[in-house]
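Appendix C: a fully annotated inverse folding record. The material below is reproduced so that readers can follow the format used throughout the book. The structure is listed first as tokens, followed by the designed sequence.
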């Protein structure tokens, strides 16, 4: 396993996502993933599986301090006071005294960002979140957030990123602030499988398309959190630390595949940055 070290956070570069895993699946797969060697688990209030994730963590028997645990606050809990209560509720469901990373799940233009970030910082100051960050923030929102919090406070922006979606401008902005990019849907919800370009590249290394896509992200120093309901797929996704993509293969993906094919674009999404 490799790590991204950002402002005191040591984030395992490959995590296990739990989006759309029903509670029984989430409990089973979190335990399985930790048993395989994953040490980064990602969930959210909106997923409805925090309690199951916590049970899976305990089932695995891995020491709490050895697992980097992330959850996210849904935008309807962004008011001061309510955000802190929502964090307490997440901790209770997860069965832990703290999370390693607490994120704002989506922007909420109806609540002043200063109010929301003030509450988020208080959760960190109380020791209930070791680190804090944002998710689905545009560059303009990220600039505002950093102006409010100061640099060195927010450790990541979790955004959709995979070989079919260019995030060059967001990546540049995060680098400017020294923040990490975390990629959700790094396999484009399975759409990388069957892609002829990724398949051709994978043949050179004895890897499948998903492994190539994950390796492409890791070599950009991007944290990736693939999600699967199958243990065999989780094991294959973890098997990406024994090879490196050539400069030419990285360029083939960068130049040949990246576009604007989002797989997550709800009606409340912000006005996304152009590549």
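Designed amino acids, in order:
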């Amino acid at each position: 396993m490799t790590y991204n070290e950002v402002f005191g956070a040591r984030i395992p570069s490959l995590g296990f996502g739990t989006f759309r895993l029903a509670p029984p699946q989430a409990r089973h797969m979190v335990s399985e993933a930790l048993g395989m060697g994953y040490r980064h688990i990602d969930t959210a209030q909106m997923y409805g599986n925090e309690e199951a994730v916590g049970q899976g963590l305990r089932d695995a028997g891995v020491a709490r301090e050895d697992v980097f645990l992330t959850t996210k606050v849904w935008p309807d809990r962004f008011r001061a006071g309510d955000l802190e209560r929502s964090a307490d509720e997440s901790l209770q469901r997860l069965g832990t005294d703290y999370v390693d990373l607490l994120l704002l799940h989506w922007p909420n233009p109806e609540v002043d960002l200063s109010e929301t970030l003030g509450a988020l910082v208080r959760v960190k100051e109380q020791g209930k979140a070791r680190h804090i960050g944002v998710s689905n923030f545009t560059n303009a929102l990220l600039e505002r957030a950093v102006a409010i919090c100061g640099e060195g406070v927010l450790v990541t922006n979790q955004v959709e990123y995979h070989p079919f979606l260019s995030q060059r401008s967001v990546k540049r902005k995060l680098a400017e602030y020294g923040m990490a990019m975390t990629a959700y849907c790094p396999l484009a919800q399975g759409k990388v499988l069957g892609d002829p370009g990724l398949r051709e590249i994978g043949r050179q290394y004895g890897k499948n398309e998903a492994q190539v896509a994950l390796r492409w992200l890791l070599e950009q120093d991007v944290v990736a959190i693939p999600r699967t309901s199958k243990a065999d797929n989780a094991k294959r996704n973890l098997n990406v630390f024994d090879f490196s993509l050539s400069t030419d293969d990285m360029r083939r993906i960068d130049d040949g595949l990246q576009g604007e094919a989002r797989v997550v674009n709800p009606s409340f999404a912000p006005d996304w940055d152009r590549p």
